[in-house]
């Protein structure tokens, strides 16, 4: 990978990691579902008027929009609002990789390798270590909600794979149009008009900047660049860089919210990132280190 492309990929992982802290800043004055609803409204508008609908069935576009918008980011916002720190949220959400492996085995009859089983076991050790963090940055409800978001992300990945679209940016824009109204209605069903009254009276520059960051650098620019790199380079070159996301997520929370970086958190990060590395890339690493070229027949 060219150096400027490598730096660009690292920049995207940093944006995705810091985004969790940016979400938490927005949640100080905006309800979780409303914040997600505004985010996806701006992801869809006005871009949808200039980008042609991707050539996939409507059920995939609608399904992805509902799962990605509500099941993932609406619920993750709620988890962070429930007291889970931005750093821990960025770490726990990476379990979507393992849920995707399990769903792929069920839906697509894909084989789960020994490396994937080992990676899941290691990462579960990291998850268990999170439970014992007692500095106030972890709540049971927040942890469960973000884990649910990780499951939703894996479902969204399956929908995306079944859609078989090559028009990734158009798919993201058009599917985003189906997230806002359900999110706004869901907030009204839970909180009545209180969230909207608070939005009108408490919306500040911090919330506005949070929304703009989530829409443009994080979602539209981030996914566009990432998928462009995936088209230019092998997946095995680009994808491993995503392991930097929870590291930047934790560092962002430390810098922005002065979250304490305890030994138990460092252990959790090491175990979960190591589990991801083993589960997703263990076979490739083994092949690279120990495979031998076949000897020519004499």
Feature tags:
single chain, 298 residues, mainly alpha, 14 helices, globular
TL;DR of this structure?
The chain is an all-alpha fold. The chain has helices at 3-26, 32-44, 58-81, 86-92, 96-107, 114-131, 140-163, 168-176, 180-191, 194-202, 205-232, 235-238, 244-257, 263-290. It is globular, with a radius of gyration of 20 Å.
**Coarse structural class:** mainly alpha
Number of domains: 1
The number of helices is 14
Which sequence of SSEs, written as H and E, runs from N to C?
HHHHHHHHHHHHHH
The major beta sheet can be summarized as: none
- What is the CA-based Rg, rounded? 20 Å
Overall morphology: globular
Q: Percent range for helical residues?
A: over 70%
Kindly state the mean pLDDT as a whole number? Answer: 89
Percent in strands: under 5%
The low-confidence parts are none
| Secondary structure: number of strands | 0
Could you explain the architecture of this structure?
- This protein is mainly alpha-helical.
- Helices cover 76% and strands 0% of the residues.
- It is built from 14 helices and no strands.
Write the layout of secondary structure elements.
Blueprint (H helix, E strand, L loop, with lengths): L2 H24 L5 H13 L13 H24 L4 H7 L3 H12 L6 H18 L8 H24 L4 H9 L3 H12 L2 H9 L2 H28 L2 H4 L5 H14 L5 H28 L8
Helix pairs in contact: 1-4, 1-11, 1-13, 2-3, 2-8, 2-9, 2-11, 3-7, 3-8, 4-13, 5-7, 6-14, 8-11
């Amino acid at each position: 990978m060219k150096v400027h492309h490598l730096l660009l990929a690292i920049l995207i992982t940093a944006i995705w990691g810091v985004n969790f802290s940016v979400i938490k800043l927005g949640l100080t004055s905006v309800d979780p579902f409303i914040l997600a609803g505004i985010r996806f409204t701006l992801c869809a508008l006005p871009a949808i008027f200039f980008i042609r609908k991707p050539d996939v069935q409507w059920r995939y576009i609608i399904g992805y929009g509902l799962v990605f918008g509500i099941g993932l980011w609406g619920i993750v916002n709620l988890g962070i609002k429930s007291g889970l720190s931005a750093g821990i949220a960025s770490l726990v959400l990476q379990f979507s990789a393992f849920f995707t492996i399990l769903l792929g085995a069920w839906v697509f009859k894909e084989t789960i390798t020994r490396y994937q089983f080992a990676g899941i076991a290691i990462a579960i050790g990291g998850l268990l270590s999170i439970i014992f963090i007692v500095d106030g940055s972890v709540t049971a409800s927040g942890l469960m909600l973000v884990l649910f978001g990780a499951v939703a992300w894996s479902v969204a990945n399956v929908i995306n794979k079944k859609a078989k679209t090559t028009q990734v940016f158009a798919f993201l824009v058009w599917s985003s149009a189906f997230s806002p109204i359900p999110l706004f209605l869901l907030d009204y069903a839970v909180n009545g008009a209180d969230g909207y009254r608070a939005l009108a009276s408490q919306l500040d520059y911090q919330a506005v900047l949070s929304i703009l960051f989530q829409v443009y650098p994080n979602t539209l620019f981030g996914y566009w660049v990432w998928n462009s790199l995936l088209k230019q380079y092998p997946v095995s070159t680009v994808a491993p860089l995503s392991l930097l996301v929870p590291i930047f997520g934790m560092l962002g929370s430390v810098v922005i919210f002065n979250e304490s970086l305890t030994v138990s958190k460092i252990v959790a990060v090491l175990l979960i990132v190591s589990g991801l590395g083993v589960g997703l890339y263990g076979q490739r690493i083994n092949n690279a280190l120990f495979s031998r070229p076949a000897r020519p027949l004499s």
